[in-house]
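[Amino acid chain]
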Amino acid sequence: MKKLLYLVLIPIIGLALMPPIEMYIPIYSSPMYTWLVLIFGFLGAATLFFKINPFIKCLAILGFINTFFSACPFISHFAYIEMILCVYLYIACVHIEDWDVVFNALWSLLIINVILFFMQYVGKDNILNFGLSQNISTLSVGNGMQAKSLIIVLVALLIQDRRLPEFRILKRIIYFGTLCFCVYYFFAHNVWSNFVYARGPVWLEGIKIGLQHPVMGWGLGEWKVVFPQIAVGEFNQEGAWYSVHNFPIQVFFEMGVVGLATLLFYTRSVWRKCLDSENLFVGLLLLIYTLSVHFPAFQTTSCCLVVLFFAYIERKQK
């Protein structure tokens, strides 16, 4: 079983280390597009028969219904396909029995990113960045902000490794160090002013535009299409706000009150499960933090790790 898990993890780690590459597949005008949507709609409905968190099932069904209310169905359909792929990754991870194998892969991912950091710092990463130009990525993801989010999600997962020493002092050092990092990140490098003068207004503008379609939202994946077209002011300059940097607000914008309520109920159920474990609770707080100020759910590497964390919670409670 361990060998099989390692074989599965190899392509996952390989994809996690790939730099961001834009892909375009012109299939929207072919019958393949219709069949693709129908197949993933069927896969979404099939989640009703899995023994997983009921709110995950609700999101899978709501996502498909949401595409019929979308301002741009083509974009929403592919966003829904991504959602269902995450749901099935979650279902697969829930059934993992030997998590030591997974943590081995996560420690390896952390080590490789540390190596990438030093190689990128001295400008010697031409080989490891697949021959692309310098500064095209930070660590194994797109930019510095995504790199910070990746590290936060990795820490949230790695502190769950049961092989870590059980000394309470070491745990306190890890937790205190993580808290200091979050506080430093928030107040240093003009991040505070960015919240006050940039993110805060964008969040308010996003809620304001979202209220134009409050029940079902604008449609999955529609933020980057709708917001730059409608937002008032300088929010859409230089493509800076193709993501709202706040997952709950983006869910409200794209899936309305129905989607946001489902997400909040799911968060509440997860919160209750984590109260019995100090490590899980701290990990959940870290995830809530980065989901509130970054966009890990829309970056492939970090998104897979977020899904993995919630699957670990589900498995831990069985």
Remarks:
- DSSP finds twelve helices and no strands in the chain.
- Residues 2-316 form one domain.
